[in-house]
Design brief:
Elements lengths: L1 H9 L12 E4 L4 H13 L5 E4 L12 H6 L2 E3 L6 E2 H10 L6 H8 L1 H16 L16
Parallel strand pairs: 1-2
Antiparallel strand pairs: 1-3, 3-4
Helix pairs in contact: 4-5
């Protein structure tokens, strides 16, 4: 039932009370980001709640709006908050065995160093990506 919980949260439903649950925060105003989040919900089973930052309690997550607008975020109680490809890596590592190797690969320092410029390139051009709209455009 994890998927139904994530979908409910993504649509603004009630939050869970689990203190140890991780949260993956994305930009719900961006169609491309929402399409990616829907892919995660459908195909990448994770223990994390997948939620748009616009519907998240950023204060409770110890995030600022600027951080949430800048990149996806992985918030896990008792751990350092991760952003961008590091957040994606944590999400993949929290999933089933067949996704974990991709998460671990993305965590390797040389790969991670290359992933950040790629992430920024995609973020700057997300309005041009499949599913993207003019609302997805971010200021550089």
């Amino acid at each position: 039932m994890r998927g139904s919980t994530a979908v409910r949260l993504a649509l603004g439903g009630p939050e869970r009370d689990d203190e140890d649950v991780a949260t993956f925060v994305f930009d719900g105003d961006c169609s491309f980001c929402t399409a990616c989040a829907n892919f995660i919900i459908r195909w990448i089973p994770t223990r994390a709640e997948v939620v748009p930052w616009q519907r998240a309690d950023l204060t409770a997550l110890n995030l600022t709006q600027a951080e949430a607008e800048d990149a996806v975020q992985w918030v896990e109680p008792g751990r350092r908050t991760l952003a961008g490809p590091e957040a994606v890596s944590a999400l993949l590592r929290s999933s089933r065995w067949y996704w974990k190797p991709f998460g671990w690969l993305l965590a390797v320092p040389p790969v991670r160093a290359l992933a950040w410029p790629a992430y920024r390139l995609i973020a700057r051009n997300r309005h041009r990506m499949p599913g993207g709209t003019a609302a997805c455009r971010i200021s550089s």
